[in-house]
Amino acid sequence: MKHIKHYIAAMAALLTVAPLQATEEVAAAQVPAVQKAVQETPFVTGTPMTDAEHYVYIFTASWCGPCLSIMPRIVEQYAEMKKHKVEIIVIGCDRSEKMVKKYIEHYRAGLTAIYVKAPKALTFPGVYMPDAIPFAIVVDANGKVLAEGHASILLKWKELCGISTAN
Question: What 8-state DSSP symbol labels residue 41?
Fold first, then answer.
């Protein structure tokens, strides 16, 4: 009888711990892929939203003329994008992390940026190294690519993210 009581007590303890662990595992599995990558990435500048519904990756560099011409237009829209849970992640294609930081901080918009030495270092779902810059990739929180191309596609960000233009 004593063994049965110990067995029942041990089983009761397992049943109270196991569901908690399973709940934590399920919660971790439910974090969208891009949000998980954002939480694990060291950024050069800014702090990204971790609950964004859409992410925009912009490949740009301080030495790129077309990049310099499109960035002010993107920065103008950034505050409104954040209100709609759209986050920009700048992928700096400069020669050093220091150059990326200086370039992005110049805009004083709080943009989030990373510096990538090698294309293989890109770990965000839906991202690949483009052939030319400025280049943008728009993804949902799970990394599904919604649009890609020259960074000027971001001028249509509401449409690309399914946000009503009446807002």
Answer: P
Mean pLDDT of 82-86: 94
Q: What is the phi-psi region of residue 126: left when phi exceeds 0, alpha when psi lies from -120 to 50, beta otherwise?
A: left
Q: Going along 63-151, which residue ranges are E strands?
A: 86-92, 112-115, 135-140, 145-150
Query: Which residues lie across from 114 on neighbouring strands?
Result: 91
Beta-sheet strand order (sheet of 54-60): 112-115, 86-92, 54-60, 135-140, 145-150
113-122 contact pairs (CB < 8 A, 24+): 113/43, 113/44, 113/45, 113/46, 113/89, 114/41, 114/42, 114/43, 114/44, 114/89, 114/90, 115/44, 116/91, 116/92, 122/91
Q: What's the token pair of residue 70?
A: 């499109």
> What pLDDT was estimated at residue 44?
84
Find out whether 61 and 90 touch, Cβ atoms under 8 Å. no
* pLDDT per residue as tens digits for the range 87-134: 999 989 898 999 999 999 998 888 999 887 765 556 677 777 788 899
**Residues 6+ positions from 37 with CB-CB distance below 8 Å:** 123, 124, 125
Output DSSP code: residue 43: P
